[in-house]
Amino acid sequence: MSTRKSLKNTKKHKDEFHLLKQLCEIHAPSGQEVSLKEFLLKYIKKEKKHWLTEPEIIEGEGFQDCLILKFGKPRTAIFAHMDTVGFTVRYFNQLASIGSPDAEAGTKLVGHDSLGPIECELEYDREDHSFYQFGRAIERGTTLTYKIDFRETKEFIQTPYLDNRLGIYNALKVAETLKDGVIVFSCWEEHGGGSVGYLSNYIHNKWKIKQALISDITWVSDGVEHGKGVAISLRDRNIPRRSFVDKILSIALKSKIPFQLEVEGSGSSDGGELQRGALPMDWCFVGAPEYGAHTPHEKVHKDDIESMIALYKIAMKVL
Q: 170: which of 31, 180, 269, 299 is 20 to 30 A away, CA to CA?
């Protein structure tokens, strides 16, 4: 019995982040989120029968490549953006940035055009303009993203695109036990946004949703460290309503789940779009801190992933 239990636990540990790895491997930079949407639809339709509450799936015309899951009688929404940073091929071997990628020369980039799969290298000129190095011309308009190198140790996960595939992973783990709530998978966050306005309008008009948690990834900084718990952001470039943020802090304190307070003057998220919108929508950014944001070497502590999922599960019950 003990041997079987040990083998079972070993397999569970081995498979724990398999879904996260799958999510990171999907090519879905801003504007090309459809492949991730298709993966999510397939995954949700397969897994929802095992969840506490089977959600209503809302997508299709009027929602572009976005996706909404509605559970029970929702009061609060989780927003998680599907897109990543990357590059678009211009003319000759020039590249235009998608969002704000931050990678060194020689970084492996991957994509696909009508001539087949692509694995090329990122290069820069003296003016810091970006180019690709490949054995043939790549069709203009082709998108390129970092080649995935998923690394797992006892304490850390390191891979491109934890921002925001970890936010997606968190939302899917919360979905397993969610009774009442809405999960919104949005587009374009890394490149200026544009979908959150109509998505928030829909959930507000349909179910009177007036509050949201932003399931995204923040930065390790001089005041936010690895392994000290999920970060609850008091502000970034945008400033959420403090009385709502205080509700999240109260839930976190009562739960005794490790957390850190974040105060930044830059950076933004889907919360910024909610704040700039015309609806009375409260929001709070709650996410694990990572090292190396928008680089091929994003790194998150496993304890912070655990505290992020745990706090979301409790908050969605209480709010």
A: 31
